[in-house]
Specification:
The chain has 254 residues and is of the alpha/beta class. The protein has 7 helices and 7 strands; from the N terminus they run E-H-E-H-E-H-E-H-E-H-E-H-H-E.
Length: 254
């Protein structure tokens, strides 16, 4: 299915990386659902930019199955057909600040629970709400947002990285379960992005160090990351599923 024929729901689309992904789809003529939890004004501003025929902003906490189902129902009513593609980009509140992070001997299990519930539980809720209509159509695209910290923990964010590792596992098991229904499930993993909301607290020296370690000698932008997400939604990825594509300027070889 061409991008312009799809209806794409981007969780966490009201800010940061999620907004860059939603904007990239919309620029290709795709109809988009911009999901948000607290970022109502920027989400509605993004939807207004592309107009009511192409974009809709909807509030939902992805950790709440009832709210997720209501969001899908509202999107289907609005566009007159179900969502074809979902991007699980919603991120539990997190600040990438290596100096302020919880160290190995002080971090509490509660921190892991929050990240697992948001990254893995949220993605599962979205997939379970989206899959019935995808199965009926024998077509669906699910794209999860991961992290290269799983392969290369240059800063050991224990809770965040553990949740993204679990999300990669879910990506692969879902691809096996949903593949016979014509649904692909893939992951795009980035590193530190210049600049997303979550990286606002990252010192400039960290950006410079990572840039110097990449073959491209620069830090990836959210817009460049979004290009890879569009690939997995496009017809060119129709035979690709269960994969994790790292988009970080070549820092991690995989």
């Amino acid at each position: 299915m061409e991008l312009r024929q799809q209806i794409v729901l981007v969780t966490g689309g009201g800010r940061g990386l999620g907004m860059a992904i939603a904007r990239a789809f919309a620029a290709e003529g795709t109809r988009i659902v911009v999901n948000y939890r607290h970022s109502r004004e920027p989400a509605e501003a993004l939807a207004a930019k592309f107009g009511p025929k192409q974009a809709l902003a909807l509030a939902a906490d992805v950790t709440r199955p009832d709210q997720v189902q209501a969001m899908f129902d509202a999107a289907t009513r609005y566009f007159g057909q179900p969502v074809t593609t979902v991007v699980n980009s919603a991120l539990p509140d997190y600040s990438f600040n290596g100096e302020a992070r919880a160290k190995a001997l002080e971090i509490k299990w509660d921190a892991f629970t929050v990240q697992l519930q948001g990254a893995v539980g949220g993605a599962l809720n979205v997939v379970q709400a989206a899959a019935p209509a995808m199965r009926a159509r024998h077509y669906g695209r699910i794209i999860n947002i991961g992290s290269n910290l799983f392969q290369n923990p240059v800063v050991p964010y224990h809770d965040y990285t553990a949740a993204k590792a679990a999300l990669l596992s879910l990506t692969r098991t879902l691809s096996a379960d949903l593949g016979p229904d014509g649904i692909t499930v893939n992951m795009v993993s980035g590193g530190l992005l210049r600049t997303a909301d979550a990286s606002q607290a990252t010192p400039q020296a960290v950006f410079d160090s990572i840039a110097a370690s990449t073959p491209l000698r620069r830090v990836t932008t959210p817009e460049e990351f979004a290009d890879a997400v569009l690939f997995f939604a496009s017809p060119w990825a129709r035979a690709v599923t269960g994969q994790n594509l790292i988009v970080d300027g070549g820092l991690v070889k995989h």
